[in-house]
Amino acid sequence: MSVAGTSTAPEGRDARRTSAPGHRDTGPDIDPDQLPDGLVVADEHGRVVRFNAAAARITAVAAADALGVPLEKALPLEDLEGRRWWQLTDPYGGLAIRVRQPERNLLLPGGREVLVSARYVRDEPLGPVRRVVVSLRDTEARRRTERSHAELIATVAHELRSPLTSVKGFTATLLAKWERFTDDQKRLMLETVDADADRVTRLIAELLDISRIDSGRLEVRRQPVDIGAAVSRHIQAHVAAGQRADRFLLRIEQPLPALWADPDKIDQVLSNLLENAVRHGEGTVTIDVTPSASPREGEETGTSVTVGDEGPGIPEESMNRVFTRFWRGSKRGGTGLGLYIVKGIVEAHGGTITVGRAPEGGAEFRFTLPVGAPAYLT
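Predicted structure:
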């Protein structure tokens, strides 16, 4: 970021922003202290005439101490190899055709890393430099993104290695020693391969969902959804898989407003929340489906689904991390991506999701969806 029109007046902190030649003012001046990035401006003599609040925060140098000081002393930057940056770039004595320095990582005293870009302002092409405008940005946000990507890659590698090793081992064994195994042994091996293939498929689907959520490309295909019936189907699936029928308590408050949502994605949300309650919780899993106020402005009614259990619940200090990537409520399996995806799906519908403590002491998840009727029905 560069502000080409910053004044070089000697008043320093009280200097006002003026228009660059040929520029027509279209609105009030912007106070540089309101900018989110650090802004440092040096005049034609290389002395600092502007040092905004963000620059003071990033560099830990007070603006009063930087104003009037030579640029290379106010910002003693070094590259990652320890070379002094202003001596390398020589903004005032270098090539007259240069107009900027692209953003790069540089070091402040003490080794703190910052992102720095610069613009050289000239009154005319090839003329002397009248101002050097420097932008500073903290690298912490970028570091968090890089760490998140690294964690995602590590998690994917770990989650893929186990099932693929199993698939490879069993298929290689069957191919080499097919005749030595009984039919029951072959069936067991093939069932294991099938289960591991499903595990890989689920992980790939989760990664695709994360990609769509992060890029804002998660599509919602709205259709009429009977949310009560959808919850009942998931309960029946758990019972068919061996859970006791009396472990689930479904309460539906009628009448419910007509709900338009993406049925596949709502199934994904319900599947994840009930699976979490069964796997990580204890006792009765209670599901309440109720009408509620819509989370979206302009609509009066919505539908809420609350899933609670009687287990130990989620520690208070972990509540704010539940919907982040890789959060795991226990060591009992899972990639830690499910609740992140659940939140993305609910919000793509214009809804909200919260987590708290159930009346029985366990974890309680509650998501609320707007009616979401297509425009041609409203």
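Summary: The longest helix spans residues 140-177.
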